[in-house]
Specification:
Helices cover about 25% and strands about 25% of the residues. The chain is an alpha+beta fold. It is globular and about 45 Å long.
């Protein structure tokens, strides 16, 4: 199995995303976004909280049973997959990649694993 996406890599290429998320967390007049309980999004404290499992992780794994285009942006590139999970249920998730060259890896019958940090 090949790792095709890491949030840390995306954030290295888009530091403004960190600043915008942190600004939302710190704007107490408009409480929205992440709480910041385990550190501000993207901070070393936040990453440490993930590594130490203070922020719970959720694993989704299964086999791709459908690929599709989601949204209304006119894209013709598949950006969503339907996964048949090990327990027999089905889950729709978005496709995230750090390198566009990895897009062909998302094929019906291929196994995927996704780890979410539940902050």
């Amino acid at each position: 199995m090949k790792r095709v996406y890491q949030l840390s890599e995306e954030l290295k290429n888009d530091p403004e995303q960190i600043a915008l998320a942190q600004a939302l967390i710190l704007n107490f007049s408009r409480p929205m976004g992440l709480k910041g309980t385990h550190g501000l999004f993207g901070s070393s404290e936040w990453w440490s909280s993930i590594e130490q499992r203070k922020i719970p992780l959720f694993l989704v794994s299964g086999v791709i049973c459908r690929t599709y285009v989601a949204g209304q942006d006119g894209s013709e590139v598949n950006n969503g997959i339907e996964i048949l999970l090990d327990d027999g249920s089905v889950r729709d998730v978005g496709i995230y990649i750090n390198d566009k060259a990895d897009m062909p890896l998302f094929q019906i019958g291929c196994r995927v694993e996704i780890v979410y940090a539940l902050d």
